[in-house]
Amino acid sequence: MEYVRLNNVEDEISAVTLGTWAIGGSHWGQYDEANAILAIEAALDNGINAIDTAPVYGDGHAEELVGKAIRGRRDKVFLATKCGLNIYARTYERDLSPSYIETDLNGSLKRLGTDYIDLYQCHWPDPKTPIEETMAALARFRQQGKIRHIGVSNFSASELREALRTVPLFSLQPHYSLLERSCEKDLLPVCVGNGMNVIPYGCLGAGMLTGKYKECPKFTKGDARSFFYRFFKPKYWLGVRRLIDAVEEIAMQRNVRPGAVALSWLLARPGVKSVIVGARSALQATENIADIPTVLSEDDLQILEELSRKVYNS
Q1: Closest residue by Cα to residue 3 from 293, 271, 245
Q2: Which residue among 35, 112, 119, 259 is least crowded, i.e. fewest CB within 10 A of its CB?
Q3: How confident is the model over 118-161, as pLDDT tens digits?
Q4: What is the spatial distance between Cα 171 and Cα 120, in angstroms, rounded to a whole number?
Q5: Quick check: 170 and 149 in contact, CB under 8 A?
């Protein structure tokens, strides 16, 4: 496992961060808690030292599982979680008011079995709460020692700039992969210009970039893959399949898995420090970190660039 130094701090984290949306037990089809725990343990045992979670992943269940898995080795884990989606009223309404953040933070600390969070992130922007009020509350919790760093996820460039006028932000967590590159136009320049760490999610395209789908897949209505990721729509399948064919060809030439090619491409992008990858079993956890990073040639990069840009214009 390769480790990277984060901007402006002494922390080093693994190039792969374990994502836990799928192990929370909701929105991802069939669920097996025993395998979920084994996935976390396998990731830690194989060199991953960064875990990303959130209260909304299974209404706190993912955080509870992470808390159990890191017991006894909390000081070896860079722990990231989020705030701002109301799980307590089961409305999942966006709420970044200072009072709700305090409730959310205290709940996360309890479920995770820790007295501090390394990276605390606004999960989604809240149009009802002024950003300066949100950031002031987070700065207060940082001063109290409950959180170490302040980050945001899913913010627009304008929202990011507004937040930066209040506090220095440590990181951005955008949706970013060969299949989803919208953050490159406006968001990444802001991050790079302000020395922010970029730690993206969706890096394997919800499994699409591993090559597991040979035909356009279909999912049940409640499955996240049926509503969250545009590249699963049948109208984009031809462009998606051409890109995956190229990823698989490059992987075969390098004698690595397709996912290693997709993740290595992303790790080479400006500002990107670590890539968030989910796993629901020990096998997935170990396979997802193998051969990362893989060195890609200029020809490889040119092919991926061309086909990635054409996915939604096929």
Answers
A1: 293
A2: 35
A3: 999 999 999 999 999 999 999 999 999 999 999 999 999 999 99
A4: 10
A5: yes
What three-state secondary structure class fits 272? strand
**DSSP calls for 37-70:** HHHHHHHHHTT--EEE--TTTTTTHHHHHHHHHT
CA-based nearest residue to 68, from 48, 38, 30 = 38
- Measured distance between the N- and C-terminal CA atoms of the chain, rounded to whole angstroms: 36
Yes or no: say if 202 and 180 are a contact pair by the CB < 8 Å rule. yes
Which pLDDT score, from 0 to 100, does residue 313 have? 81
pTM for the whole structure: 0.92
Give the model confidence (pLDDT) of 9-39 as tens digits: 888 999 999 999 887 655 545 567 888 889 9
* Residue (of 31, 22, 18) closest to 225 by Cα position: 22
Catalytic-labelled residue, pool 3, 31, 57, 92? 57
Contact 80, 54 (CB under 8 A): no
DSSP state of 3: E
Active site residue 57: yes
Q: Domains of the chain: which residue ranges?
A: 3-213+258-293
